[in-house]
Give the backbone structure.
Amino acid sequence: MNDKISVLMPAYNREKYIGNAIKSILYQTHENLELIVYDDGSRDKTVDIVKAFMNQDKRIRLIGEEKNNGVAHARNMLLDAVNTEIACWQDSDDMSNVYRLKYQIDELREGGLDLAFGNYVIYRGSEFQLKVLAEREYAKIPPYDRKFNRGFATVMFRIDKVGRFNENKRLGGEDLPWLAEIEKNSSNPTVNIGFRLYYIRFHDDRIGAWKRKLASLSGFTGVDCSEGEQAQTYEEMIEAYKRVHP
């Protein structure tokens, strides 16, 4: 198995956070990687920040569209751009421990597995600045937690085993059905790695936070919505919410 890994990062208006997310991938101890960023029609400086990193590191590739089409479409476009056997997700507002890729690809290699999940921890607000950035927690040997938290963004997978995301789920809810389909069709086991490899930055502009806000406007939970309830793009749904709650 070729050990080059594609790290897939969907992004939409993430100028505040994407620089740290990119650094956490470029600093990986497993250096044989390509970071593919898909910009989903950002209106801020997200693209400029990505291009600045591209000038410093040739392992970054930027793709995207001017129109915002939602997170499921972004994920499909990223999958289409992969040229490696192995890939993983990295949200543009989170960070990975620098040992993440090494730990996960080692498990895939040794076990002949299709999926490898890393443990994650959630930090809120200033906690993220203090624990992950100021204390450089992402650069330390990760601790092992007995309790395992399985999160979609932590998964590493074999690209030939995965299918497409449902693009009618524009504001989240696309992730768990995608994983369930892989595991249903896979003859190889999934491994859960107890080491804390991923750091989630919880803030008010996360997709998950917006799902809860929009529930009050549209009546859906944001987790498993019907096609009609997600006819609008992510950007359109947020703008509709802001008109009601200025």
About this structure: The radius of gyration is 17 Å. The beta strands are 5-11, 33-40, 60-65, 86-89, 95-96, 115-124, 156-158, 190-202.
